[in-house]
Amino acid sequence: MLKREAWLLGIRGVLAIVFGILAVIWPGVTVIALALLFAIFAIVTGIEQIVHAIRPAPGPSNPVTGFADGGGPRAARAVAGVVGLVIGIMALVWPGVTAVVLAIMVGVWAVLTGLADLWLATRQHGGWSLALIGALAIVAGLFIMVRPAAGALAIAWAIGLYAIVSGILLLVAAYQLAHQGSGRGHMAAAH
Predict the structure, then answer these.
(1) Which pLDDT belongs to residue 164?
(2) 14 or 191, which is more confident?
(3) 100 and which of 40, 65, 133, 148 could share a cystine (Cβ 3.0–4.6 Å)?
(4) What keywords tag this UniProt record (predicted)?
(5) DSSP code, position 65
(6) 66: how many CB neighbours lie within 10 A of its CB?
(7) DSSP assignment of 90-127, as one string?
């Protein structure tokens, strides 16, 4: 189960880095193209969050909630996933959205995703890298929401840099999770 989670985090990290590099290399790209790139990224991330929310939780379930951990982290992932899907679909349906509206959508999405990642970092095995991803997402989201009219160029760079850094941190989290899983196996074999 840990290997699968590490793999999904790794895919999310690679997609974030690719999206970020494209946004930084071609900041003059039209708002429509940026909206489409963002839509794909938000939809894939939303699906990944929903998959984590609905997968069976390890360990005994709470008889009241049915969740092994009280339901909090799974609920946070489900909300972040649904928000990502909705925003991604909106960007696909209305690609001609203005830079200001796109910036506000990206800012709200980043803040919500960051809050979910911070919540998960305090309750699960994500460690410092997941907490840092959450904090970075919140800061980037607030910056983008406060200055939505800064222009498509600045927004593209801010989104791109955020995506690259969060993608790198997601890869670190995936690496840590993969080694955490293999470390347990070696520990169990030694005993």
Answers:
(1) 92
(2) 14
(3) 148
(4) Membrane, Transmembrane, Transmembrane helix
(5) T
(6) 10
(7) HHHH-TT--HHHHHHHHHHHHHHHHHHHHHHHHHSTTH
Report which secondary-structure segment, H or E, holds 182. Answer: helix 152-190
Q: Can you say how many angstroms the Cα of residue 80 is from the centroid of all Cα atoms in its chain?
A: 8
Rg (alpha carbons) of the chain, rounded to whole number: 17
Q: How many domains does the chain have?
A: 1
Over residues 88-94, mean pLDDT? 83
Hey, is 63 helix, strand or coil? coil
Please report which helix (H) or strand (E) contains residue 78, including its range: helix 72-93
Cα separation, 128 vs 125, in Å, equals: 9
Q: Which residue has the tokens 């990224």?
A: 41
Token reading at 60: 């005994």
CA dist., res. 121 & res. 165, Å (int):
17
What's the sign of the alpha-carbon dihedral 145, 147, 152, 157? negative
Mapping DSSP onto H, E and C, the string for 132-180 reads: HHHHHHHHHHHHHHHCHHHCHHHHHHHHHHHHHHHHHHHHHHHHHHHHH
State the residue range of the domain holding 107: 2-57+65-190
For the chain, report the end-to-end CA distance as a whole number of angstroms.
21
Residue 189 token pair: 């074999």
How far is residue 185's CA from residue 141's CA, in Å, rounded to a whole number? 39
Locate the DSSP E strands across the chain.
Answer: none
